[in-house]
Structures are given as structure tokens and as C-alpha cells.
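HUMAN: You are asked to prepare a plain-text protein record giving the amino acid sequence and the C-alpha cells, both parts labelled.

ASSISTANT:
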Amino acid sequence: MVTPEDWTSDSWEDVRDRPWDLVVVGGGTAGIVAAKTASGLGAHVLLVERHRTGGDCLWTGCVPSKALLAIAHQGGAAGDFYAAMARAREAITTIEPVDSPENLRAAGVTVLHGEGRFTGPKTVAVDGSVVSFRRALVSTGSAPVVPGVEGIQHVKLLTSDTVWSLTARPPQLLVVGAGSIGCELGQAFARLGSQVSIVESGQRILLQEDEDAAMVMSGSLAADGITIRTGVSIESFGPGVARLSDGSQIEVDTVLVAAGRRPRTLDLGLGQAGVELSERGHVRVDSRLRTTNRRIWAAGDVTGHPQFTHVAGVHGSLAATNAVLGVRRAVDLATIPRVTYTQPEVAAFGVGLDRVGVSGQYEHTIQHAEVDRAITDDRTVGFSRLVLDRRGRIVGATLVGPRAGETLAELVLAARHGLRARDLAGSMHAYPTYGDGVWKAALAQLQDDLAKPWFRRLISVLLGLRRRMTLP
């Protein structure tokens, strides 16, 4: 596996005194996409990365976690823990060359390994040596939040960044936080043989999703033997025990904190560059990802927009194009998909069920007990739900079931282009698939339209005319 020491920077002779069209600080997904996009447009691009290119997604996030989940979901037993961790590392090694400095250089990007810090509105220092830029992009990502809890020294503390260093399966794992990361890793470790407890301070798991989806997921986690405690927090730790705010205790030897992430904006010199931050430390951007310094843009987790790799990638492309060409493309926040890769998967975007009834919005839900593919697979736990506006346009969806993330793509595209449920219902879908649930939900809306009095009157008139026609 490549480490920062394994790759070399371009020399300062290649960097000094060059007129950089775009300097990118941070070599994760947003930075890599931005650098390649700008270079492809003919710009002179310098990318500065302090650790290793590829970012959290490659090294500690999407890639290793999905490899781990793949083995866990295949019915991995306790003895498969080592194979699962090895598979996670193998996945990183396989994908790493795509995000490597060599690949960036092949795309025309100059890469420097070092700490980047802004020293003024149009200058950035890399390990103390200053370069000038016409435009710049901040794409330094985010890091896990580790809350201070009394007695934390009594347990082995892990985050989504450090969990991959494990060499042995933790017998008793406590997961703090029941968002996507907590649920995914909690289920994976339970299926690989750990005794898992999840503690969530909110009143339920997956707070960002529909309550019905959270209920299905709670049942699945419980079936895996996971203890779920909601509405409580960790008060303190003792040797082999976590004390909760309600006075109860949980036996534990390892703690995985999955309670949110903070933007990596400290020590970047953004104040000297005239770049304002929000109260939570995110870079303030407009709809085009431009900061309060008109020379500087930001992309990815640092913006405070949803923290997903696909958001970072789109951000990088959009910000680079705006910065280099001076166009004014705006980011779309209404159709951002999100997926929790548990079994079953939970996939969603846009307006949720909690908004139904607001401004004329309503929903149609098909339980997967009505979906033939789910019946044939004996995997009927789950549902497909569409949220529509008063004109029948798709403005949100929640899918719970196998490969829900793939099924969601069709709905995101439909919403992006303002399509209605009737457009979806009129499109031929392969049978039998889990997409049948989406099609049936759309068909239910079409049937509602057909049942409306004005439409029934129109049908009656047309039918009467048809009956009176005389064929030759």
C-alpha cells in the first residue's frame, strides 16, 4: 500500500515563479477531480497534498468499508474477520493508482507533497515556500469528531479513520452514533462475530431518513444481535464498561466513534486570505462554490454541503470550471442521493415523508411484499416510496431493499429533469426487478389521476364518441 513517503513531489524548480491558473489545496476526491478538470481545460494546475492523494474515501471511507461489508453480507463468520480486513486493504491497493500523483501528473497536474497554508488573498505557502495563484480551491475534507468523555483511556478508541488498523476482531464493540457510518460498521462487525452495541443520543437511528426506513433498519440490526440504545449518551468509561446517561452500563472493550465529522479548515490561513468560515468551521460559499475571496473557491466536505464522495466529485468539477473559465454554474442541492450500505440498503434523496402535506406534497409507497422479485428472492422486507409535488413531479424518494442505491439513480435523474410520476409509469421496466416497486408507486399515482372526476368525464366523452363512430 502506498504511503506519503512512497511518492515524491515535483521539484520546486518546476513550481517556482510559474503563473498558476489554479492552486488546489487538498488531494481528496474534490481536489483530484478539480485538478484534472482544470488541467483538461488547458489551465496550469498545482495540487498540494499534505498526506496522500485519494482522500478519506479511498483510504478510510467508501473503498475499505464497502469491501468489508461485502464479506460481512456474504455471511462471513467470526473466522472471516482477517479475510475481510485483508480484502479491505486489497481494495485500496487496487484502486489507489487511479488517484495517485503519477496519474495526476499524467493528466498534466503538478503535485506537491506538503502543508499548504494561505498567506494572503492570492498566495499560498507550501512548507513555508510561497507560490502565487490566479485562482485557488480549498478541498481539505473533514475528519471524525471525537467527543471528550471521562475515562476514555480505559477503552480502545477507534474512528472510521483508524478502525482499519485492527489486527484482531474486537469481542465487545460499542458504536457511538447511529448514522450511516455507525449502522454500516456496526452491522459488519456483528456479522463478523463481534458483540455490538450502538448508542445514539437521538430518539432513533438514521435520523436523516424517513422514520419507516429507520424502523426497518432497526429490525435488521436487532436480527444481527446488535443492542441499540437511543435517547441516551455516554457519560463516562471505566475498565471494560461504558456508563450511560440513564444510569445503565454496557460492557465494552473497544469503542468506535461515528458521531459526525468536522471540516479540516484550521491552520489553513483562510483568515489571511479573506475567506470567511461559518460558526461550525465550514467555508462560506455561494451557490457557485465561490468563497468571500473572489479568487478562491471551495469544494467537498469543507463547504458544509452533504458529506458524500459523489458530492465532492461534482463540486470539484463545477468549482474548477467556474474558476478557470469564469462561468457561473450553480450546485444542485435538491437531488443529492444518499445510501446506507447495510442489509437492507437505505437509499434516498430530496423531500422526505415528514414533508408530505406541506405545499401540496404527497406520497405513494409500495411494500416489497408486493414486488415479485422480492418475493422470488424471499427478501420482502422493505419498500419503495415516491414523494411528489402538487403537479405530480418527483421531488423525493426513499427505497429500502437490496441494491436500493442502484434503483435510486433512475429517480434522481427523473427529479433532475422535472419528470412526473406518469413519465416513470409510462417507461417500460424489466421484469422482475426491484425497480418494479418504483414503477408500481408511479403507476399508483397515474391511477389516482385517472380516477379524478374531470378525467373520468373526459374518458366518458371519448368513449361515447368512439361508440358512435361508424367503421367503413
